[in-house]
Predict the 3D structure of the following.
Amino acid sequence: MTTDQNIMLYAKLSGFRLVVLANRIGCDSEFSRALHDRLIKGLEAAIGCVRIIMALERSVLTGGEEFADYQLEGEAEIFGRFTINLLDDLEFDFDTHEYRINGGDWAIALTADYTGVDIDYPELIALTDDELGSLAPIITAITRETGIAVNASRISYDDHAES
C-alpha cells in the first residue's frame, strides 16, 4: 500500500469507529452494547496497525531505522490477515484432533470407546442480521470499504455429525 492509501484507510477506520460509537447510544441490550464495544476495540486495533505501518513507511523513506523495511513488510503481511472477531473465535489442530475457543486451552475433539472413534468439533454459526441489529449494515460497509473481515459468529456444540 502507498502512503496515500494508508492515510485513506486510516480515515475510513476512524470514521467507522465514530459511527459505531454513535450507534452504541441506541443499544437496547447488554449483548448489543458488547458487540459494539468489541467492534470499537477491533477498529482501534486496526487503526493502531495502520499507524505503525505509516510510521515504518516514514522510517524507510528517511532511512531512519536499519531494519524498517523488513518490519514494514512483516506488519503489512500481518495486517493483510487482520480480522475483527465480535464473539467467538475457533481454532483447529486437525493433526492432534484438538480445538480451542477464543485463544483458551486446547480441548480434544476425539473420543473413543467400545463403539468406535468419534471426532466432534464445535462449529461457528454466523449471527443473523436480526441478531446484529443496527450493526449489520455497518459491518458490511467496513468489510466492503476497508477489506477487513468482521466475524460475528458464535460457537455451537450441536451434534452435527448425525446431520
About this structure: The chain has a mean pLDDT of 88. The helical segments are 3-24, 30-62, 68-80, 129-132, 135-146.
